[in-house]
Design goal:
The protein is an alpha+beta fold. The protein folds into two domains: 3-76, Glutaredoxin, CATH 3.40.30; 87-205, Glutathione S-transferase Yfyf (Class Pi), Chain A, domain 2 (Up-down Bundle), CATH 1.20.1050. The protein is 54% helix and 8% strand. It has a four-stranded mixed β-sheet, covered by helices on one side. Helix 1 (12-23) links the parallel strand 1 and strand 2. Helix 1 runs parallel beside helix 3, helix 1 (12-23) crosses helix 6 and helix 4 runs parallel beside helix 6. The protein is globular. The termini are far apart. The structure holds glutathione (GSH). Glutathione is lined by residues 11-13, 35-36, 52-53, 65-67.
């Protein structure tokens, strides 16, 4: 049984898959693919028609789309169950994952965290307007998840589930910005959740750190 995870070290979606694999204690090989580079190896192009990361390869079974990957990992490997049994809790978990994918990822990660944290490190220009737009769009997402929060320690039910795993890497980047920290502090349940989640072993073990600063600011 060979498991490969093809992904980018700083990618939130790759980290989601890594957390699920860590929870299930699956041994796997990480193959680094940076989807933001012009050159993407032919081998990866053949696996993912949309050239996003991550992609999981389990023997001859190739799977892309992170929420499909985490469900497959949960269903295929022993270890703690990461999806609730109760149909309403399971539906709530799926709903939160969809909210994160469809409304949260872009503003929280690509507009706020990317422009505030990553672009300066990659020698690229920060666009303050993008950050402003991202913060505005992030607020209703945090409100919605705060409202949907039905668990105590975790978002849904009594155990860690795939929606906690989906949100954690995005929240980690979002709260690296002062604006993100301020926005989280206004949401009591989510703040409590993050205090706990940031110390959770699989979240700590998959922390990619931050890229080092590159020296020049490009004009593009
Ligand atoms: N729907 C995809 C989204 C994955 C995704 O957007 N990954 C980012 C990195 S976190 C990516 O590959 N971005 C490359 C790009 O935007 O060109 C999934 O669930 O796997």
């Amino acid at each position: 049984m060979a498991v490969e995870l093809h992904g980018y070290q700083y990618s939130v979606y790759t980290r989601i898959a890594r957390i699920a694999l860590a929870e299930k204690k699956v041994n796997y090989t990480h193959i680094e693919v940076d989807p933001f580079q012009e050159f993407i190896p032919e081998q990866y192009r053949a696996m993912h028609p949309f050239l996003r990361v991550p992609t999981l390869k389990h023997d001859d079974f190739i799977l892309y789309e992170t929420s499909a990957i985490t469900r497959y990992v949960d269903d295929s490997f022993s270890g703690p169950q990461l999806q609730p049994n109760h149909s309403r809790e399971r539906a709530r978990m799926s709903q939160i994952i969809s909210v994160i994918d469809n409304y949260g990822y872009w503003p929280m990660v690509r507009q706020v965290a990317s422009h505030r944290i990553f672009k300066p490190r990659f020698g690229e220009r920060t666009d303050e307007q993008e950050i402003k737009r991202g913060l505005k769009a992030s607020a209703p997402v945090l409100d919605a998840i705060e409202e949907l929060f039905t668990g105590r320690q975790f978002l849904v039910g009594t155990h860690l589930s795939l929606c906690d795993i989906h949100l954690a890497p995005m929240m980690a980047y979002f709260v690296m910005t002062d604006e993100g920290t301020a926005m989280l502090s206004g949401r009591q349940q989510l703040s409590r959740w993050w205090t706990y989640m940031q110390e959770h072993p699989s979240v700590v073990a998959t922390d990619p750190g931050l890229p080092p600063y590159q020296s020049s600011i490009s004009e593009s």
